[in-house]
Amino acid sequence: MKTLPPAVLLAACLASTFPTAAHAARPAEAAAKAGLKVEYQKFTLPNGLDVIFHIDRSDPVVAVNLTAHVGSAREKVGRTGFAHLFEHLLFLESENLGKGGLDKMTARIGGSGANGSTSQDRTNYLQTVPKDALEKMIWAEADKLGWFINTVTEPVLAKEKQVVKNEKRQGVDNAPYGHTRYVINKALYAADHPYNWQVIGSLEDLQNATLDDVKEFFRLWYVPNNVTLVIAGDFDPAQARKWVEKYFSEIKRGQAIAPLAKRPGKLVQTVKLAHEDNFAKLPELTMTWPTVEDLHPDSYALEVLAEYLSETKRAPFYQVLVEDAKLAPSVQMGNQTAELAGQFMLRVRAFEGKPLDDVAGAVDKAFAKFEREGISERDLNRIKAGLETRFYNAVSSVLGKSALLAEYNYLTGNPGRIEEGVRKTLAVTPADVRRVYDTYIKGKPFVATSFVPRGKLALALSGSSKADVVEEKVVQGAENAVDPSRNAAYTRTPSKIDRSKEPPYGATPAVKVPAVWDAKLANGLRVVGIENREVPLVQFDIAIDGGLLLDNPDKVGVANLVARMLTQGTAKKTPEELEEAIQQLGAAINVSARTEDVRIGVTTLARNFDATLDLVEEILLQPRWDEKEFALIKQSVLSQIRQQDADPNALAAINFNKLIYASSDLRSRNILGTAATVNAITIEDLKAWYRANMSPSSARMHVVGALPKASVTRALADLGRDWKAKPVSLPAATPASIGAAGKVYFVDVPDAKQSVLRIGYRALAATDADYYPATVANYILGGGGFASRLTQQLREGKGYTYGINSSFSGSQSAGPFTIASGVRSNVTLESTQLVRQVLQEYGPTFSAADLETTKNFLVKSNARAFETATAKLGMLDNISKYGWSAGYVKDREAIVKAMTLPQVQALSQKYLDPSKMVWLIVGDAKTQLPRMKELGFGEPVVIGK
Length: 945
Known about the structure:
Layout: H1 8-14, H2 26-34, E1 41-44, E2 50-55, E3 61-68, H3 82-89, E4 93-94, E5 98-99, H4 101-109, E6 115-118, E7 123-130, H5 134-146, H6 154-173, H7 180-188, H8 203-208, H9 211-221, E8 227-233, H10 237-248, E9 271-277, E10 284-290, H11 299-310, H12 316-324, E11 332-337, E12 342-349, H13 356-373, H14 377-384, H15 387-394, H16 398-412, H17 418-426, H18 430-440, E13 447-453, E14 465-466, E15 517-520, E16 526-531, E17 537-545, H19 558-566, H20 575-583, E18 588-593, E19 597-605, H21 609-621, H22 627-644, H23 648-660, H24 675-680, H25 683-693, E20 699-705, H26 709-715, H27 717-722, E21 743-748, E22 754-764, H28 771-783, H29 789-797, E23 801-808, E24 815-824, H30 828-845, H31 848-860, H32 869-882, H33 888-898, H34 901-911, E25 918-923, H35 925-928, E26 941-942
Parallel strand pairs: 2-8, 9-13, 9-14, 16-20, 21-25, 21-26
Antiparallel strand pairs: 1-2, 3-7, 3-8, 4-5, 6-7, 10-12, 10-13, 11-12, 15-16, 17-19, 17-20, 18-19, 22-24, 22-25, 23-24
């Protein structure tokens, strides 16, 4: 799992995109009046386990979160990566859950998927399940803590090492700029500092880990007095407490664990390091200053400083680096805090060919601008204004609330300290912001890393030394085969109760499909909505059908540029004025182009809905078409396209579409366009596209939030009057063509550490009668996470990959069936052979037990199907796009219940034939291409990027 920083949810609440206030007092007053807190109950078992309950009866679900206060900071030098390795191991098996552990149970009970993450300071295990499975989850979490470690054997450890190494290859070694944090932390922290190494560890350390090392680590850190259990959702707290006491109380307390001392990074002088990155096409400069740990009094002002310097069009760094010097499309900046230390990071990914010395010079000018001008009360209150909206977004799910409570408990022992964080952010003054700049940034030494394309070292910052980056060599047969399937022989851990039987379900929860209201505006625009008062927000979107499909084939990229330009000012407001008007409402308005639509997405406080809607109407009906902004955005898109040329995952997605769609179908094209098409686009092309295609006659609107239908439709009256309807000619839906014979295609990325796989073909439209049944049939193949055969075979069985999945996707037109994965380079052939075998055997070996697991998951998971606003918006989108009834979810449930073995087998034979699929590999041709003929689909075809 991707690692997360401590207090990640608090950071999301307090330090992301901050909006503007018209009057200085209003943001603080509004947030204080709102009472931004999460109610909870807390008790501690005699063995030291902290238990936190939060009651939320809005949906029949519960989130269960087990957080151990151990991350990479507790590891030994030479044994790095252990905390993260345990995040993997604890899902595999325990004495009473058996092999497959929590993952298999999750599929049966309809859970969201057992998940976890590791940071420098903690490891958590969390998921949301239907409320009737709460006792099962408490039993399972206790089993992981008290009845797990004996099940870890040498074969299990060997296989999981391979999985973790694949995760590192995927997220670090095979990714552009993937080694940046490694280089920074080695320079920023001393060799014995707990943050000197990365959470994921090194490949060498992981390989050297012994079984005894692993067991010692578990027994030291996975003890009740170092763990927090949070249960959040719809449950009986008295009964839940009895279950917690029953299953956790006999687990023995561990030895006392002393807290680590706060230890900020230390630099005597500025350190400059450079690396030639195999996967980078653009030069990137990152500058990092040591600062303070999480919850330090200065951390709040540092967050405000980072936001002010970089985010908006008024920001000094945007004005100097983006607008004036035109060195980069944006500047990223943040104060990243962890339990022991923090770091203030500035990142600039420059345009192609720009020397990073020029970027560094512009950075100095931007800091000088701040030193002259400081931060005004107006800008400070703009930053504070969105605090309420961000807080409600962070606590809009029971899983989010469980994570927030757990973080504060392990950091401070007080899960309610979120209120203090809000209060301290609201109390930040302009003087505080200037003081922390002077204290931690101005004139202070920093670490500067220059990551440049291979062969372009001259672009690096002058005076840089070569960064010490360890890169794996691809060697055929370097890893031994692993077989974790053998049952472990071990002495069972005694218990005072019988833990061998999984607890029964509780009462089956009543699943209520949200009531949907429907309206039509005067201009014909259909509006569908759900009133939802769990938090005082409204989220809505307007989908205008067309998108990429309405581009001129000779000028692909226009739809994307139109979408990007719509938020760059209006006829009445400059780009800066529009940005501030949105932010003073604590709102967010985004416009994006997709393959089949342009979509305006909005989040706002319910009390500000009318004012936010006025801005949306202005954006939609009165675009500015600012020439300066057009030039900046165009250059930004060209930069994106250039970077895609070296990104294996981007290359896989782009080339897969080219292979499965006809060349005349715009779905085969990159929505960004190409360098040639984008360079040919003028602002007049955008205006013409906008005039021809933006009409309520081809649009749909979806609204979810704390307002009734009457309030929403009343506010929409002006849009219904002012947005005039006109006919728009949309392309007709297209079916799949007759399948061609299977063929292997190869895109060469020299020295790739992984091969990215895309396997599939153009299959079904969402409106086809077989579409949903085929999706159901796919659950056990690759749609069911750890319950799927592809995962069990390639990850759990062989250790070839970190993750693999399969899916059907479609609209009114036929979309693809896709199998996607990233596999270890030196098992590219073996991985594809195993995928082919799984596909060939799937239908004939699909069993009654597989069907039962599928039905249980898909029916029971409906309890959590509508918990979030995003899920509700997705439901409304399906209703408006396909003309489905508001009860289509119940119709699908009936399909699931009626599915039979012969039906799944027939669907598998019809739609999962490997001999009719495209087999695309993006990887290192010199080592892997010669072997791919052995897959049995003829001579591989090498295609250009």
